[in-house]
Structure formats: C-alpha cells, structure tokens
Amino acid sequence: MPTFDLRLAPLRALNGALHALAPETDQTHWTVLNPDGRHAIACGLDAPVSVEIEGNAGYYCAGMNKRASILVAGNAGVGVAENMMSGFVRVRGDASQSAGATAHGGTLVIDGNAGARCGISMKGVDILVKGSVGHMSAFMAQAGTLTVLGDAGEALGDSLYEARLYVRGRVTSLGADCVEKEMRDVHRAELHARLQAAGLAGEVDPGEFRRFGSARTLYHFHVDNAGAY
Amino acid sequence: MCGIVGLFLKNGALEPRLGALLSGMLCTMTDRGPDSAGFAVYGTGAEGLKLTLRAADPALLADALDGMRRDLGLACEATARDTHTVLTLAASDEARVRAWLGAHARGIEVVGAGRRMEIFKEVGLPRAVAERFDLAAMTGSHAIGHTRMATESAVTTDGAHPFSTGRDECLVHNGSLSNHNGLRRRLEREGLAFATRNDSEVAAGYLTWRMRAGASLKEALESSLSDLDGFFTFVVGTETGFAVVRDPIACKPAVMAETDDYVAFGSEYRALVGLPGIEAARVFEPEPARVYAWERH
C-alpha cells in the first residue's frame, strides 16, 4: 500500500514508480497525498492497480490510462483521462474542459459537472457525468457512450461520427449533424449497463433519458458543398 | 499563455496578509508567464489621490518629484519602490502634475491613478518582480496580478499587465482580442487615451467607457461579451469591486475558490493551493460568458 506525498517527493518519482510496476505486482493500491493541482498525475499507467488521489488534480490526470483504476477525490483539471485506453477513472468533484478527450476505451465517471468539450473526439470510452456537461460536448465523437444525468450545453454532438449520447436533463442545442433518436430496448439495456458500471443501477431510471446520435449526413463529400471548401 | 490571479477579501482580518497571499499565487503562475509580471493592490484609501509613476531609471522619478515641488509648490507624499513611485496628493493637483510630467519628464509614465489602487509591473520572473516591489508586505482588501508569456509583442514593461484606464480601475487579461484596433479608434473618439498598442489596454478602456456612462462593473462586463471579439479571461478590480468573465467558448483556463473569508481566482488551481482554508473552499470553474462580480459594502 505505497503512499506518495507530492509535497515530499517529486511527481516524476511517483509516475516513474507507477510505470515500473510489473503486471503481477502485489503493490496494487496506491495513495497520493497533496496533489495540489499538479499536472499529469498518474499518467500513462499500464497495470491493474488502483490509485487514489486525495485532493484536486491539475491537467491530464490519468491520461493514456490502461487497466488502472484511478480515483480523484477532488476536482480534476483539463483533460482528465484523455486518451484512456482501458481501466476506470472516477472524479468525485467537477472535471474541467475536455474530460475523456480522444479516449479509446475504459470508463470515466464524474460525480460533479464536466466543463466544455467533454468527450471531444472520443473513440470508444464510456463517460458518465452525474452533473451537467458544458458546450461542444462529444464534438466529433467517433465511438463509445456519453451519459449525462444533468443538462448538456450548446452544440451537443457537433459533427458527430458515431457514439451514443444519453441525456436526462435539458439540452441547450444540438450541434451540426446531431439528432435525437428513438430509445429502443437495446439502448435502454446499454444505458442500464452504463448506470450499473457507475453504481447507479436501480437509482436512476433509463426511461428518463433521451438519446442523440449522428444523422450521418456529413460522412461523405457532397458535391453541393463544394463551394464551402 | 499567461497566468492571471486575483484575491478579494471578505474578512478584514486577512488584509495584512493580502500581499503575501497574492505573491504566492503570482509566483506559482511563473510557468505560465516567465517574461514579466505585474499586480494592482487596493490598499489604504488616501484622502486625495494616489498616482503610481514608473520610470526605467528611478533617479528620474526623484528628479521629477524635486522639480514638481520646486515649480508647482506641490505638497505630496511619495513612496518609492524600485522603478515605481506612488505619489499621494490632493485630487485637485492631478491635472497640473500630469501637465508638468508631460512637459518636463520624458521617460516617466503614469501607470495608475486612484484613491486606493497602486500598480506595479516590470520585466522579469514573477518572484523577482514581487521582491523588487516588496509585494509580500503590502496590505489591502483586494488585488489582481498577471504573469506574462509574450506571444505577439515585445517583452517590455509597457506590455505588462495590469492595465488601468480609469481611476481605481484595472484589468488583467489572459487571451488575445481581434477587434481591438477598431475599438480603440472608437474609444479614442469617445475621449479615452491609450498609452500602448496593446489589446488588453483596449479592454480596460472599454470597461472604463461603459462605467463612465453609468454601467456597473457587472453590466460593463456583460456588454463586453458582445462588443469584444477574441479570446479572453478577464479579472477586473475597481475601488470596491472584483469581477471575472470568460469569453463564450471559454478558451482560456480559470478556476475560482470561495470561502466565507475570500474569493480567489487563478488560471490554474495550483495558484490557489497556498490560501488559508483552501481544503474546505468551494472550488469551481467559472462558466463561459457569465459575469461573476463581488462588491465590498
């Protein structure tokens, strides 16, 4: 159960120690004290360990995560879990902009609100935000799910490729090529699984959500748009 | 890039520590702006008016002071801090002091004027700038600061923030404006004067113009959202007020913390770590295009 106090040891020592872990390590539970908003805490992990960060994290916390479970006990700065490949990241407070940006896999749960551009260019991650998300969320999203229990800001899902967006609250506006779609059983089952992964099964009714996705009209070049290039 | 910070005290017991707290915030933002730094402190109110003067060579300031005392019979207090001197004089003397400086004192700039506001800014690492002016010993009710990473103009003291274009009004800016040249011409026609070609000074001038027309600080910032084009996070101080606004797409970072004792702003949370009771503060990211304003009563 290693404990790292970032006021006593440099951040590089923490990240270096986490990167050096063997796949079969028995040091599976790490605690990070006094993160003090430092950037790039617990980035680039590739081991089935859990890391608890006892405070507010700065930019890119848990970026590029693979297999690890990372908990931020406070708020997270820009780009939490950006480009995550697998594993689980949870933020107990709010997340700033671009949470889960470009992430390919894994699960990101934000207990509070997420700022603008949550899930921008997401490529397979499952993101669940218990609060609301800011403008341009799921911009150019390619795969995965974004589940929002609160509201979504302007231009949700702008230039969306694929990805499924589930929103329980109000949506200020939809971005280009993003449309509301029917909630069928398959979607309710998927949403239930997402809620279950966040520990909300039985507490939140999948029937209260609306689904949004791509109208797929921007997929291919259309000659009528030639003048716009 | 640039870093901006601000601290507005609600609890008077913290006022003796204002400078020390702001200094810690400013120095933490060195990574975001190592080229120059500046700050405005709202300290003890003067009976008359405080003028903050700056000259590259402090001897010029001492000479000018002697000259004004001799030529104008000026009665004023002067507090010298490195390249800046704060004159405290009767408000009625402001016009003749400015005229005398204009006629006799090349190389001296008036960087700020107000009943409570003093402004200090210089080229160099934020820690060095804070130490030159002994920021840590300054006291007051609120203060704002800036660390600059110059991207579009030279590293000079003129380009350092805060900018002040009205009495007790000042602004720090992270971002860049794209319609400042047109707006500057419009404001010059309205009678405002600008000391530099800097975009942030135009933002300060715009707010001065709105407030001169009767707008509150909050209203002035609300109208700036439609009249200013570009990227901005502003932190603004007035004699009794403190406000924050971000552009509608929230291009530049911002974090705020509020407790019963203070409201604090930082470009990043790191800047707020040294504040008392920060562990229990309400920490939040200000929303885009929403004005957050506080007023002392």
UniProtKB/TrEMBL annotation, chain A:
InterPro entries: Glu_synth_asu_C_sf (IPR036485), Glu_synth_lsu_3 (IPR012061). It comes from the Bacteria. GO terms for molecular function: oxidoreductase activity. PANTHER family: TUNGSTEN FORMYLMETHANOFURAN DEHYDROGENASE, SUBUNIT C (FWDC), TUNGSTEN-CONTAINING FORMYLMETHANOFURAN DEHYDROGENASE 2 SUBUNIT C. This is Glutamate synthase alpha subunit C-terminal domain-containing protein.
TrEMBL record, chain B:
This is Amidophosphoribosyltransferase. Keywords: Glutamine amidotransferase, Glycosyltransferase, Transferase. Residues 2-297 form the Glutamine amidotransferase type-2 domain. The keyword Aminoacyl-tRNA synthetase does not apply. Its EC number is 2.4.2.14. It comes from the Bacteria. One of its GO terms (molecular function) is amidophosphoribosyltransferase activity. The keyword Electron transport does not apply. It is an enzyme of class 2 (transferase).
